[in-house]
Amino acid sequence: MNHTWLDRLPRHPATTTLLAVAMLAADYVTGPHIRFPITFVLPVALAAWRLERRRAWLFALGMPAVRLAWVHLLWRLADESLFFETLNTVIQVAMLTLIAMLALRAARHQRALEAEVRALEGMLTVCAHCKQIRDKSGVWHPMEVFITQHSETSFSHTFCPTCMQTNYKEFFKPGEPAGGTQRTPSVK
After folding, report:
1. Hey, where are the domains in the chain?
2. pTM of the entire structure?
3. How large is the greatest C-alpha to C-alpha distance in the chain, in angstroms?
4. Is the Cβ–Cβ distance between 42 and 18 less than 8 Å?
5. Which letter, b or e, does each residue of 5-15 get, where b requires 16 or more Cβ atoms within 10 Å of its Cβ?
6. Which of 61, 22, 14, 56 lies closest to 39, judged by CA?
7. Phi, psi values for residue 141, rounded to 5°
8. What is the rounded CA–CA span in Å between residue 120 and residue 59?
9. DSSP of the chain, one letter per residue?
């Protein structure tokens, strides 16, 4: 199955946290005047894509809040700039939350589609007449042989009541259970 480049990144939860810390560090190094918070989208989207819902929300709220704290406490901008920084933080939180919601929804949809594809790939092509099964290479096999080779299932054979009555009624005695209950050796 084809996977996105996001699926190829290490799956450990610390991966998204390290990415978030790296984005915050880059934002801190670049200072208050370079708008680096656009990169906050990366850890938020990655956490959401991996269905780490709480982590995605934490990044969406926390990363802009950390930047705002730096603006207020470390960089000490003019009061007019602080108002706009606070307003920008509110907008960033709203947009990152929206991105988290959309990425979570897309990830759930992707997982559902992958499950459906797996189910469809698991369908068997069966001859409508003889009931043989065609494998992936196009070779036809008797159903019992194919299923035994591809699972832990074994088979025993008997007759259903209808087939017993239709095909072997001379052997069928009234009052006797049709199809029998006796097991026959399984096919291997």
Report:
1. 5-121, 125-153, 159-188
2. 0.60
3. 103
4. no
5. eeeeeeeeeeb
6. 22
7. -130, 150
8. 37
9. ----HHHHS---THHHHHHHHHHHHHHHHH-SSS-GGGGGHHHHHHHHHTT-HHHHHHHHHHHHHHHHHIIIIII---HHHHHHHHHHHHHHHHHHHHHHHHHHHHHHHHHHHHHHHHHHHT--EE-TTT--EE-TTS-EE-HHHHHHHHSS--B-----HHHHHHH-TTT--TTSPTT-S---PPB-
Single-letter residue type at 94: A
Residue count of the chain, please give it: 188
Structure tokens at 98: 């929206």
Residue with tokens 């982590």: 55
Structure token pair of residue 182? 């006796």
Tell me the C-alpha to C-alpha distance, in Å, between residue 10 and each of 1, 6, 147, 155, 176.
18, 9, 36, 44, 64
Digitized pLDDT (tens) for each residue of the chain, 188 residues in all: 456 665 666 677 788 899 999 999 998 888 887 877 788 999 999 999 999 999 999 999 999 999 999 888 888 777 777 888 889 899 999 999 999 999 999 999 999 998 887 776 677 889 988 889 888 889 999 988 888 887 778 888 887 888 888 888 787 666 666 555 544 445 55
